Each structure stands twice: as structure tokens, then as C-alpha cells.
């Protein structure tokens, strides 16, 4: 995974933390262990991070940013017609980072909630672009739309990984494509608009 604006020391800290997370639960890992494993001093650690929670947050945000880049690419009028579905790329991204993803699911406290929140924030800020691509105009509030999308995507990603990626990326991408085609053609009752 690519760490943003990362010096060699910052990368070493991240990799050391991930290495420790493979062995221990999050709450058992100390900053002392991280810096010892990374071969950096305490002041170097605190130059980049406020503590192990901000380190975890940084790693997760780097992962989420990669996913958001793919979501940006989905903002194209042709995306609904692509075969195989463009949405396969979401699952390819997760598959290429599956070791990290599994680790975060298993060991990072509240990872699923933070993933959903990240997807919600992204979906909410890109609601108008999504509406124009789908050809719908304010058919549902941005808040409800972002909540629905973030919950769906997060549940699909988590369950796909937890179930050993038993469905192919193409099958998973098709599920999202079908959802969007149905959502775009659904007439929302006026009282829900």
C-alpha cells in the first residue's frame, strides 16, 4: 500500500505497527514496541503521529483514499454500461490489499464503522455528480442516499472478505451494477423525496 507523503521513517513506523498488529491485539501494542520494531526514536514517532490511534487512522485513511480514487473513476456516464462492470475494480482493490483489509477487520477497533463513515462522507460530498450520472434529480435526500450507499458497499466488502472471497470479483461488481441500475430506474414516492 502507498502511504501518503511518507518519509522512510514514517513508512517504517507504519510497517512496524502492521507487523505488530499481526501478532497482538491493538490494545496490547505500545508506542514503545512500535518504535523499537521500526528502529526510530520516540521523537520521530511523535513527529508524525499523536499516538497509536492516529497511526491507525493514518493507515486506514491511506487505504480509504485508494478506494475513493476508484469511486471518483465511477463518476462517468458510461460506467453503467461497462462489461465487465466497472465496479469489479473495487473488489480488485480490496483483493490486492486483502492482507491489510483482513488485519484491520480482525484487529482494528471499530474498523467497519470507520469504513462506513468514510464511504458515507465520500458519497455525501459526491451526491450531485452521482445523480447526474444516474440521470436522477434529487430523487432522495443526499443524506439517505449516502447512508444507503455506504451501508451497502461496506456490507458487501466486509462479507466478501469474511467469506473467503468465495464469489468472484465480477459477480460482486455485477451486484453493485444491478443495484445502481435498479436505483436509477426506481420512482421514489414524493413523501420520501
Describe this structure as you would to a colleague.
With 193 residues, the chain is mainly α. The chain has 2 domains: 1-49, Arc Repressor Mutant, subunit A (Orthogonal Bundle), CATH 1.10.10; 60-192. It has helices spanning 8-23, 31-38, 42-48, 52-73, 88-96, 98-107, 111-125, 127-134, 142-162, 169-185.
Keywords:
single chain, mainly alpha, Arc Repressor Mutant, subunit A, 0% strand, elongated
Topology summary:
Layout lengths: L7 H16 L7 H8 L3 H7 L3 H22 L14 H9 L1 H10 L3 H15 L1 H8 L7 H21 L6 H17 L8
Helix pairs in contact: 1-2, 4-5, 4-7, 5-10, 7-9
Structural classification: mainly alpha
Low-confidence stretches: none
The global form is elongated
Which value, in Å, is the CA radius of gyration?
A: 19 Å
Summarize the structure.
The chain has 193 residues and is mostly helical. The chain is built from 10 helices and no strands. The N and C termini lie far apart (40 Å).
Amino acid at each position: 500500500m502507498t502511504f501518503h507523503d511518507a518519509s522512510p521513517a514514517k513508512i517504517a513506523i507504519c510497517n512496524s505497527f502492521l507487523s505488530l498488529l499481526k501478532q497482538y491485539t491493538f490494545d496490547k501494542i505500545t508506542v514503545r514496541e512500535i518504535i523499537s520494531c521500526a528502529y526510530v526514536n520516540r521523537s520521530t514517532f511523535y513527529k508524525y503521529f499523536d499516538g497509536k490511534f492516529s497511526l491507525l487512522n493514518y493507515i486506514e485513511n491511506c487505504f480509504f483514499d485508494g478506494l475513493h480514487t476508484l469511486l471518483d473513476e465511477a463518476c462517468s456516464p458510461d460506467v453503467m454500461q461497462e462489461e465487465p462492470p466497472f465496479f469489479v475494480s473495487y473488489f480488485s482493490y480490496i483483493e490486492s490489499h486483502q492482507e491489510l483489509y483482513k488485519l484491520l477487520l480482525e484487529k482494528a477497533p471499530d474498523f467497519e464503522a470507520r469504513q462506513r463513515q468514510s464511504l458515507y462522507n465520500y458519497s455525501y460530498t459526491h451526491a450531485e455528480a452521482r445523480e447526474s450520472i444516474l440521470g436522477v434529480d434529487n430523487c432522495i435526500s443526499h443524506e439517505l442516499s449516502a447512508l444507503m450507499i455506504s451501508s451497502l458497499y461496506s456490507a458487501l466488502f466486509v462479507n466478501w472478505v469474511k467469506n473467503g472471497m468465495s464469489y468472484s470479483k465480477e459477480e460482486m461488481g455485477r451486484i453493485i451494477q444491478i443495484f445502481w441500475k435498479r436505483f436509477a430506474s426506481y420512482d421514489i414516492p414524493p413523501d420520501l423525496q
